[in-house]
Design a protein that fits this description.
The protein is built from 20 helices and 14 strands. The chain has about 575 residues and is of the alpha/beta class. GO terms for molecular function: arginine-tRNA ligase activity; ATP binding.
């Protein structure tokens, strides 16, 4: 189903050509939904932008556009406001016909992209031998939501987890384990992840202070890179142990990923350096092989290099990222590659993308996008940490959210004198707790930092997951109370008369445009805002309009509004990685 916004944009574009000729065929009609009902439902500002070009007043241009508009079945007579704005008020009968189409559609009227394109979303990316912490939260859930939206839109999405499973840290850890805990080098599960992290920290201190240990650790790296059997065996044990811990978090968050860590690209690194050398892009700087970048300078104004091979012959993150791009283009056949990482890596990716384009590793036909995000802060406005000052472990944060959600639920049940089964309480607490954490993050513009507060994110009021989940429960309650099968409702006689009915219907019909925005701009908070406003509009409708007690045809119309609202909330929340509850 073509969106109402696109329909009006097309109509204004056709009127422009009819009124002023083909030279305006590519002119943006500048049609958008209005924020204030007194200006109608949609507004076109194109007349103001054309005044200088056409040497006419904006109002005169607007009058000519209106004279050539063919939208009698869609809109009331368009009105000119102010200096030349064209305001459109959509006819209730047209809204009703579109709402009927949405209700009859399995996808709520949203079309899939054609042709299907391959998109890679690179997100989460924790490091082996380290626990996932709150810093991994944003990459994981933002990346998952972006992948869900693109999958729903019809893209062929490959979700990649570029874990840190290679490099100096493994030589350091293996060398230390050989000394203090040799059983861990040969026995699976000899250590749990917490012990492994503690030992890693001790190994790092030793590495920083002991030159002899540094040499031992570097030799372990060489052995690992050369494929020494015992080193590879130990490395695999460490990876497997971490992988199981990561998976427990991903299961809790309902995240699907294909792991392809740094080690995967190790066999291709030398070829990358050879290719850069062949294209005469490499320069030596302090013994390292580098590519000097355009637009990147140090504080003295001197060009900055991207190091692709260190003076000791080792490779670094940039080399791996170039090899990854090469593989994703040639082997995965990606049309677009999306990297979801913190904003601090923006310069790194800008540099890597520049070199990849210079070396023809990244062709013009493949788009690469860095999706940056800000920090998770405590309520004091500083980086969120535990009371002891440690980085907050992600598992602890999620467990605490579920515990807090359960406490709130049990208090509410006691106040309402309700009795529920243990299974109901545990499931509801799990869904609400995890959803609250996800939604609190996704509802922020990802480029901003945000303050983490259990009290705010678990509130039943405001822009929170519990508020949206409760809005979904209401139409489900109507269905149960009236013994209504929403799927059997006929959309032939939809009647929209009350203001709250019209407001709700208009908002429901903007879903296509919102999902299109998220698909293009990769900002899930726009979907969150839409769902929050939908919940508000439904609650106003629910409070002001009788549903089950209404006479026909209003009764069926209002049931259809309830059904489409519930389905829209369920779909929208699913694209955020949030399941619904039928009762709360």
């Amino acid at each position: 189903m073509k969106s109402l916004l696109l329909t009006l944009q097309a109509a204004v574009s056709e009127a422009l050509v009819a009124a002023f000729g083909d030279e305006l065929a590519d002119t943006d009609p500048l049609v958008a939904a209005t924020n204030n009902p007194k200006f109608g439902d949609y507004q076109a500002n194109v007349a103001l932008s054309l005044s200088k070009k056409l040497k006419m007043s904006p109002r005169a241009i607007a009058e000519k556009i209106i004279a050539h508009l063919q939208i009698d079945s869609i809109s009331e007579t368009p009105q000119i406001a102010g200096p030349g704005f064209i305001n459109f008020t959509i006819k209730p009968s047209y809204l009703a016909s579109l709402l009927g189409e949405v209700q009859q559609s399995d996808r709520l009227g949203i079309e899939q992209v054609e042709p299907i394109k391959k998109v890679i979303v690179d997100f989460s990316s924790p490091n082996i031998a380290k626990e996932m912490h709150v810093g991994h939260l944003r990459s994981t859930i933002i990346g998952d939501s972006i992948a869900r939206v693109l999958e729903f839109c019809g893209y062929d999405v490959l979700r990649l987890n570029h874990v840190g499973d290679w490099g100096t840290q493994f030589g350091m850890l293996i060398a230390y384990l050989r000394e203090v805990y040799p059983e861990a080098l040969t026995t699976a599960d000899a250590l749990d992840i917490g012990d492994l992290v503690t030992l890693y920290k001790k190994a790092k201190v030793r590495f920083d202070e002991d030159a002899e240990f540094q040499d031992t650790a570097r030799n372990e790296v060489v052995k690992l890179q050369e494929g020494a059997t015992d080193s590879r065996h130990t490395w695999k044990l460490l990876c497997e142990q971490s992988r199981r811990e990561f998976q427990a978090i991903y299961d809790l968050l309902d995240i699907e990923l294909t792991e392809r860590g740094e080690s995967f690209y190790n066999p291709f690194l030398e070829n990358i350096v050879r290719e850069l050398d062949k294209q005469e892009l490499l320069e030596k700087d302090a013994g390292a092989k580098c590519v000097f970048l355009e637009g990147f300078t140090n504080k003295d104004g001197e060009p900055l290099p991207l190091i692709v091979q260190k003076s000791d012959g080792g490779f670094n993150y940039a080399t791996t990222d170039l090899a990854a791009i090469n593989y994703r283009v040639k082997e995965d056949h990606a049309n677009k590659i999306i990297y979801v990482t913190d904003a601090g890596q923006a310069n790194h990716f800008a540099a890597v993308f520049q070199v990849a384009k210079k070396a023809n590793i990244l062709p013009e036909s493949v788009k690469v996008v860095h999706v940056p995000f800000g920090l998770v802060l405590g309520e004091d406005g500083k980086r969120i940490k535990t009371r002891s000052g440690e980085t907050f472990k992600l598992k602890d944060l999620l467990d605490d959210a579920v515990k807090q959600a359960r406490k709130d639920l049990e208090n509410r049940l006691e106040e309402e004198k309700r009795t529920e089964t243990e299974e109901f309480i545990q499931n509801a607490a799990q869904v609400v707790g995890i959803s609250a954490v996800k939604y609190a993050d996704l509802s922020q513009n990802r480029t901003s930092d945000y303050k983490f507060s259990y009290d705010k994110m678990l509130s039943l009021k405001g822009n929170t997951a519990p508020y949206l989940l409760y809005a979904y429960v209401r139409p489900q309650g109507v269905s149960r109370k009236g013994n209504i099968d929403y799927s059997q409702l006929s959309s032939e006689n939809i009647v929209l008369a009350e203001e709250s009915e019209l407001t709700l219907a208009k908002h429901l019909l903007q879903l296509t445009d919102v999902i299109k925005e998220v698909e293009q701009d990769l900002l899930p908070n726009r979907l969150c805002q839409y769902l929050f406003e939908l919940s508000q509009k439904f609650n106003q409708f629910y409070d002001r309009c009788d549903i089950l007690k209404a006479e026909e045809p209003q009764r069926t119309s209002r049931l259809i509004l309830s059904d489409v609202t519930a389905r829209t909330l369920k779909l929208g929340l699913s694209l955020l990685g949030i399941p619904v509850l039928e009762r709360m």
